[in-house]
Predict the structure of AI-2E family transporter.
Amino acid sequence: MAATDDDLPHGPAAGSGPGRAPGDTGPGPGPGPGPAPGPDPVPGDGTGGGDGDGAGAGGGGGIPAPSADPGRMPRWFPRAVLLVFAAYAVFQLATWAFHALTGLLLNVLIAFFLGLAIEPAVDRMAARGVRRGFATASVFLGILVAVAGFVTLLGSMLAGQIITMVENFPQYLDSVIRWSNESFNTSLSRLEIQDSLLKSDWLQRYVQNSAGGVLDISAQVLGGLFTTLTVVLFSFYFAADGPRLRRALCSVLPPTRQTEVLRAWDIAVAKTGGYLYSRGLMALISGFAHYVLLEILGVPYAPALAVWVGLVSQFIPTIGTYLAGALPMLLAFTVNPWYALWVLGFVVVYQQFENYILQPRITARTVDIHPAVAFGSVVAGTALLGAVGALIAIPATATLQAFLGAYVKRYDVADHPGVSGRPRRNPGASALARARRVLRSGRRLPGADRDA
């Protein structure tokens, strides 16, 4: 049966040359060999003119990308949510670790400055051939012996004075009662006061609370000992391994910065030593002033009390002055109760004099920072870290200034009255020039020009 035109394919047959007619199936001549037969077109892939979905017009264009389903979750969303939760967990972990390690970080900071303070003595001993570890241990041993001797001396003195005060307390109480009866026309009695005190509710509650707080006091004492040992251990390592620590720090810096950082480190050591020198000088001044007062009042053990006041007031910040003044007040009370008030007033006045006048001027000379900067650093350190911040504020500021000085480039300043501090000289505005002008104008009489 012969094929009709409807049974023949309408498109170009596979393997047909470009010169063949659409309905020509014979081996007619063409302009050249046709292209090699390729794979059959896949319906809908855009490579041929088939009936597939999305076929390009005339078989020449590609299929457009299918539109995204608006109800389907993007593939990046679960990963983004996981990253957000992971970042939040890391932040919470870091915050918790920082709050948990705050005490340790403060101890390390104190130990660092203590190591800087004793490093000059260790360097002198190491320069004479002594090993740094042995030299550091010797310095710490000397400090420990001095502190132990001072505490033992004050402890024995305080114990003796407390025994004397307890023995003479009835006499002190009788003198106070006698003065009150004579001054205010009262009829108080020592026996009545003792009975009312012993039978009072607040005394019984205080005794009960004190008995229940023995464990808390013991825990605080053990915690203080552990903190002291931690600071001593870290400061020992900072002082003994100072060169190794600087070598490790400089190993991560380029060679051009290593010399500057080492120079800044030396300046920090010098300024920390200067800070200790300034505290020692203020301790000497404070001790001398309180010694004069105690000698005038006739308080016993005046030299030992003066040393106590000088050291405690300078090396225990914020409350050191008042804590140091409590012991002289106690001993002054054994001489005369009114002498205790004199000591309290002197302590308060001297504290203000030291904070606002003496300390800024001395630290400005020894640590080489401006008095306003020294005072502001102490206030900021107290606000941030409390007593520890007040203690290390000035050496920390001096150290920061030294490190920044290694990186900040300074230039010569132009000569200008605004920076030199010298007023601009204006001959016409001086008092002498104004006086000359007045004298000259007064010499010219009215009508002198007409006569001339």
Observations:
- Residues 44 and 53 are 5 Å apart (CA to CA).
- Residues 1-36, 38-61 have pLDDT under 50 and may be disordered.
